[in-house]
Amino acid sequence: MRVFSVLLLGFFLHSFTDWNTDFEASKKQAEKEHKLILLNFSGSDWCGPCIRMHDEIFESASFKSIADNSLVLINADFPRLKKNQLPKDQQKSNDKLADKYNPEGIFPYTILMKADGTVIKTWEGYPNASAEQFTVQLKDLINARK
Length: 146
Known about the structure:
Blueprint: H1 2-15, H2 23-33, E1 36-42, H3 48-58, H4 61-70, E2 71-77, H5 88-101, E3 109-113, E4 119-124, H6 131-144
Parallel strand pairs: 1-2
Antiparallel strand pairs: 1-3, 3-4
Helix pairs in contact: 4-6
């Protein structure tokens, strides 16, 4: 069981490396690079649909191809296990984002927004779409803003 836990933790650390955690810095980056923001609320060590979404959609080649060119990615994680707890300042930042954008506490919850924080579209739970279908939805929304 311990080996499995270590492998699982390694998966999460690997999966979230391309995601920012600083909302204000991400807004500035999105403004500077003329990109949209994709904010994802997840429970990396307890939420099955969150884990599945990161594995099947966010790690897919189709998603990564559009994300690299058009999106600034932000992950607001809410782990439950003590060993995976975030630093207090990061938890406070995530709580603030949740208060503003996810007051109902939905997991996963994904938001596409402009650089100024204006919400364009939300997805509650795991999208009823394949990685390719989700990417097409994103691409259409991104292209509509150009």
